[in-house]
Every structure is written in structure tokens, then in C-alpha cells.
Design goal:
- The protein is of the alpha/beta class and 298 residues long.
- It folds into 2 domains: 3-66, Winged helix-like DNA-binding domain superfamily/Winged helix DNA-binding domain (Arc Repressor Mutant, subunit A, Orthogonal Bundle); 94-298, D-Maltodextrin-Binding Protein, domain 2.
- It has 10 helices and 11 strands.
- It has helices at 3-15, 18-25, 29-43, 60-87, 104-117, 130-138, 201-211, 227-235, 245-249, 282-295, and strands at 48-51, 55-58, 92-98, 121-127, 144-148, 157-170, 191-195, 219-224, 240-244, 257-260, 267-274.
- Strands 3, 4, 5, 6, 7, 8, 9, 10 and 11 form a 9-stranded mixed sheet that branches.
- Helix 5 (104-117) links the parallel strand 3 and strand 4.
Length: 298
């Protein structure tokens, strides 16, 4: 089993389709199929079920590999980054995972402070889904992470860094603009663009918790993997969005209108997540620095 085989396997596992996976990898379908057969032969298992009516589905063995394989690429990237950092003179590396809920200005302030106070500590930043971050922290693939609404502790420590308001993003001239504060119940009558449940799971969960209180069914027109995609869909009049005010304002929002929700403000919390750490280490100093910057007025 080699990295190229794993790369091909993940493409098919994610696309659930050999032709789309081949297009994504910029290769023909026949060498892709051969690579998957070779991988199955090397492992002695069947990774995919193929057939009319079922398409391409992962077997139990395939599901296990699909869960484990991304960690291998994370380790390879970390090894490369640590090697280059050591060659450049860094004496330690902190592996920082970033999921949803990141506020660019506050993250920039933290990174700038780290460079000023400990310039010889290399910060290796990885943008990953929340589920991957939590597993990585549990299995020592990451040292610390940032995420919105991490949920259960999973045996990890969690500190609230900052809270921002959930707001409604509307296209210009949308009927809901008659409200200075938009009632949640009014959203059930509009097509909505929500965040992807895996790629932006923390934001997705908090928005779904809010919408669960509406009596009418909601219409999900699209799922966005980023703030930029949400803004584009709203600006085009495709749907109404719900997102973090501070994150939206960090982007160009000239083509959309932001409105607060009616009633008590809904706060989105960003957490710092980590396992146990020793005092007076690069990790402990990073955590204390993050908490200090989060507490400073903005």
C-alpha cells in the first residue's frame, strides 16, 4: 500500500463514482480502476461494492480505510513541515487544527503575537472538519484546535475564546427586509443556504438547533462549505443564509444585507480545544496567549 493508491482510494470513496474520481485526479478511468484492484489485492479485502442499481459503495473494510487514510496524509504533511521548520531553525512545532468558527482578525492577532513572543516556534496550521480535528487531538495528530460548538468533551479540554452573534444574510430587496429584527418563524417560508453538516459541522449544528424550534418545515436550497460560498448564493438571490456576523463582516458583504434575529441574540461560541499539557511548554504558552488575546477588548 502506497500514498498514490491511498490518494486514488480516497477520491473514489469521496466521489462514490469512478469516472468523477478519475476526472478529479486528472487520469483515465482504467488506470484508476487498476490502482484500486491492486490496493484491494495488497490488502486482501474488497473495498468497494460495484453493480447496477447500487453504484459504487464502500464495504465495511472500505469504510474503515476511508476513516483512517486521511490521518496518514496528515502525518506526511506534518513530517514534511517539521523537517522544513527544523532546517529553517525552529526548535519546536505546534500542530494547530482550525475548523469552523474562526474569526480572521483574532486569529491574525494571535499568530502575530506568537511570532513576536516566540519566533522560533513553528506553527503548523491545518484546516480540517471538526470530526477530524477531535480525532486528531485524541490521537496526538494535533496539539490544539479551534472550533465552533465542539459538543461533548471527548476526553478533551475546552475553553470558550469568543462569542459572536448569529445573523440573517438577505439578498437586496428581499421581502424579509421589512423586519429590522427577523423572526425565526419567518425563515421557514424561504429557501435557505445552510452550512455543510461535515465541513462546517459546528455552525451547522447551532443553526439547526435554532431552526428546530420552528413549527413549519424548512427548505434547504443549498449547503455551503465556506462563508464565501454562502455570501455568493445569498447575493445571487438563490437563498437566505444564517451565519456568524463577525465572519461575514470579514468578507465583502456589499451585495447582501445583514439583519439580527428577533428576540434574544443567538451567540455562536468558538472554543480552544486541547488534551492535557505540561506547564511552561510551547503548548501551555500558546494556550495562555490565546486566552489573553481573546479576553482583550476588540
Amino acid at each position: 500500500m502506497n500514498l498514490r493508491q491511498l490518494q486514488c482510494f480516497l477520491a473514489v470513496a469521496e466521489e462514490r463514482h469512478f469516472t468523477r474520481a478519475a476526472d478529479r485526479l486528472h487520469i483515465e478511468q482504467s488506470p484508476l480502476s487498476r490502482t484500486i484492484r491492486d490496493l484491494e489485492h495488497d490488502l486482501g479485502v474488497t473495498l468497494f461494492e460495484r453493480g447496477a442499481g447500487i453504484g459504487t459503495r464502500l464495504t465495511p473494510a472500505g469504510k474503515a480505510l476511508a476513516e483512517s487514510a486521511p490521518r496518514i496524509f496528515t502525518l506526511v504533511d506534518q513530517a514534511r513541515s517539521s523537517t522544513l521548520a527544523a532546517a529553517a531553525g525552529s526548535r519546536a512545532t505546534l500542530r494547530v487544527a482550525l475548523s469552523d468558527g474562526i474569526l480572521p482578525k483574532r486569529l491574525a492577532a494571535l499568530l502575530a503575537c506568537c511570532r513576536e513572543e516566540e519566533p522560533d516556534i513553528h506553527l503548523q496550521l491545518s484546516e480540517v472538519p471538526l470530526a477530524e480535528q477531535l480525532k486528531g487531538l485524541q490521537h496526538n495528530l494535533f496539539d490544539v484546535g479551534f472550533a465552533c460548538n465542539p459538543g461533548e468533551s471527548h476526553g478533551l479540554c475546552s475553553e470558550t475564546l469568543w462569542q459572536t452573534e448569529l445573523v440573517v444574510a438577505l439578498p437586496p430587496r428581499h421581502p424579509l427586509l421589512v423586519h429590522k429584527h427577523v423572526p425565526v418563524a419567518e425563515l421557514s417560508g424561504c429557501p435557505l443556504v445552510l452550512f455543510h453538516p461535515e465541513l462546517q459541522s459546528g455552525l451547522h449544528q447551532q443553526v439547526m438547533s435554532l431552526l428546530a424550534g420552528t413549527e413549519s418545515a424548512i427548505t434547504v436550497a443549498a449547503q455551503a462549505s465556506s462563508q464565501e460560498m454562502l455570501i455568493s448564493l445569498v447575493a445571487a438571490g438563490y437563498a437566505v443564509g444564517l451565519s456568524c456576523a463577525a465572519q461575514l463582516k470579514a468578507h465583502d458583504t456589499e451585495d447582501i444585507v445583514l439583519r439580527p434575529l428577533a428576540g434574544e441574540p443567538v451567540r455562536l461560541s468558538t472554543h480552544l480545544i486541547y488534551a492535557a499539557y505540561e506547564p511552561d511548554t510551547p503548548l501551555s504558552r500558546f494556550i495562555h496567549r490565546a486566552l489573553r488575546i481573546a479576553a482583550a477588548p476588540h
